[in-house]
Amino acid sequence: MLAPAVGAVLQSEASLADTAAVAGLASALTSLVKRTVHYMKAAASMQQRQQGQQQQQRSPEAIVHRAAEYFLAAVPAIVQTLLPETALHHTAAFAATTTTSSSSQVCASSVLLAVVLARSIVQLAGAMEAAEPQLLFVSLMARPEFHERWGVESSGSVDLMHVGHVPSGQFGSSVEGQWQQAWQQCVLSVTANVWGIITSPSCAAAAAAAAAAGGDITAGHTSSNAASSSCTETGTAGASSSSGSGSSSLPVQWRYLLNLEQLNPRWAAAAAEYEAAVQTLRPGAQMGQQYAAALQLCKALEAAAPLPAMCNNLGCENLAGVSEAAAASKRCAGCRCRYCSAACQAADWRRHKHACRCMAAAAAESCG
Questions:
Q1: Model confidence over 179-231: pLDDT tens digits?
Q2: pTM of this prediction exceeds 0.90
Q3: What is the DSSP string of 201-217?
Q4: Is 311 in contact with 340 (CB distance < 8 Å)?
């Protein structure tokens, strides 16, 4: 049900200028990825319990259990559905070519979503690697069936429809082959689009323009809570907005994301390292080397950029609340980024402290 919203925002310049729509999508994607990771861990645990035991013939009634056990097979399809390459190409194109009065906001929104995608890849990759390639192989070869979308029948009732199996044959018959083609290639595709967004010429130009206009590179980002009604202690979605949100008279939300290289030396070094690695690895690099470089880039990006409307603890497993944004009601005293609890904030401090100090030094509020 989230896929149409993803396409609508990523493929529309007007939607990217609407900060409420972008913050809402970021929150929803974060919640969905968090739940996906939860299911991945459960599936891996189920399969591990089955190891060493003789597989029993399953009855038709056990099909739901079978799909749950082999949930890892659905993850590449989930990534391709919710992070569609075509839509990401549109976003990268908008970030690269936009020339409207709302161009700075479009670029900032695009980078925000790119960071959310990088964060999602890091979380999913962590769960996938913990499960190990063998379990993904077993899941794909089991050819489980999954319901992929909701549909409304003629009677008006809502039911699941479009049942299909994961076509394991296209990934080869070896553990390594399926790991490379089903998972690593998926990560590379998303990372390439993330890189295209954050390195687009218009984003660099927007950062320079915003800095020149505001003096402080985070001035538009640190507007008061009164001017940004969604950045409240109750944790409602990331920014108030209307169809006029792209007006040049309004401050650019999340402007700090356009200046990450200036704000965070570690990110600047990681970006330079990735760019050099990409040039070095072409054209005959092994998939594993490319995957490692892509994953390292995503880790560096999400660590450098605290995000609004979500718990910033990468390992957060809190699924309570009406939305991710509503749950993330606690603020970091240093950079003002969000957490859902004191426990999550404490657990994340070691990872977060460098970015926090960089953001605080620049007087940036990451929930702006």
A1: 988 899 999 999 998 998 888 877 777 777 766 655 444 443 443 333 333 33
A2: no
A3: HHHHHHHHHHHHHHSST
A4: yes
